[in-house]
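Standup notes
- DV: blocked on the single-chain target, sequence here:
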Amino acid sequence: MSLIDKFIKNNITEPYILVCESKSQMLYSKDLMDKLQIENDLIPTPKGFGGVCTTAIKFDKKDISKVEEIVESNNIEYEGIFSLKDKYKYDLSQIYNLNITDNFKEIIKKVEANIDLEKKDILYLLKTEKEEYKALIKMADIIRKECVGDRIEIRAAVEFSNYCKKNCNYCGIRRKNKTHRYRMSEEEILKEVDKLYKIGIKTVILQSGEDPYYDTEKILSIVKKIKERYRLGITLSIGIRDENEYKLFSEAGVNNYLLKIETASRKLFEQIHPDDDFNKRVKHTKLIKEAGIRAGSGGMIGLPNQTLEDIAEDILFQRDYGIHMIGFGPFLPAKGTPYENYKPGDLNLTLKVVAISRIVCQHVFLPATTAIASLNPDAQAMALQAGANTIMLISTPPHLRENYEIYSNKNMVNLDFAIKSVKDAKRKLPKYLNYDYLKKLGYEIDESLIN
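- DV (later): unblocked, structure below
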């Protein structure tokens, strides 16, 4: 049995969920369940049982009396215990009227009945063309609207170091690549965060290569100052860390942790990561969740030697590991890497993956990635129309941005570009942005776009 199978195969045959009032209550409940050897898993709370990007504890019906005893005897603050048979039902009736095959109709029936799609279903959707492709995008859009509405989440990344100890074959900041290396000081990072705070951004992404220079103490200092000064949501994207570090980050207020699997195929993973460990990456995905941090993952579409079967497994990995934020973008070659001469990933296939991820994983955040915007400037809007609901701005200081090139010809997505993508996709900008301040900076804001 593979490591992935070991983690996701369990005896939960009739799933129930416990939805707690807070992260601390959820972690306390899970700890008590673990001590009593009640099989459980952390999953994104399904639509209808709680907010998007919150976490529920999944367990089997046979243990319901034990779970009820846990919450009552320990005064757990919780919203409820629910059967997943009662999951939110999506009305996809309008899709049946489109020009689709019986196979596609059977997939729709499964989605409507809350029956998990199998690999063969995902493979069918990955191969859709013409009218069925339109039906796929429409189905994803319906589910997106029901789950997260029309408002697009705007987040911002500060790429604070391009040093990396790893030598991934596709990455422009790999250890062996010749590039101008930089590290931002804590003061420089906080200066950029201050700018984001002033324009109303609610979540900052602190991203770097796997750089040991930023030890636990340095990361915690930055996190705590951001929380104290600005009370922003924080996503870390800094590679694999020790299990205890995830717990310390969680206690300090880190909300999300992005650790992309890139591919769920062990064979392909080892080809693109010559000095990384597949089992370790899978294990740490689970450790992040168990520390009480929402897990972000995703992958690249169009990697050398990648098959549709591999891509189907990538999508299933996101669902089976309960990933909250799923970023799929096209493979884009980077100069100076072993993969620099391979062709980029296909836009149409990437959009299919975004759509299928929304259909399969539903109540999660799906970014319209910077990579897809780099492949085609109109593609970010297309991804929003295919089920995505998040845009990440590049907020690295301008004089450093070109040195953080994971792939070449990166689209430095700024607020102007994001606003255009939202408008083109006929979506809405979030109310939380400071529009009065943005107007003073010279931004022209269409009031009808704000929700």
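- Follow-up: The CA atoms of residues 396 and 441 lie 18 Å apart.
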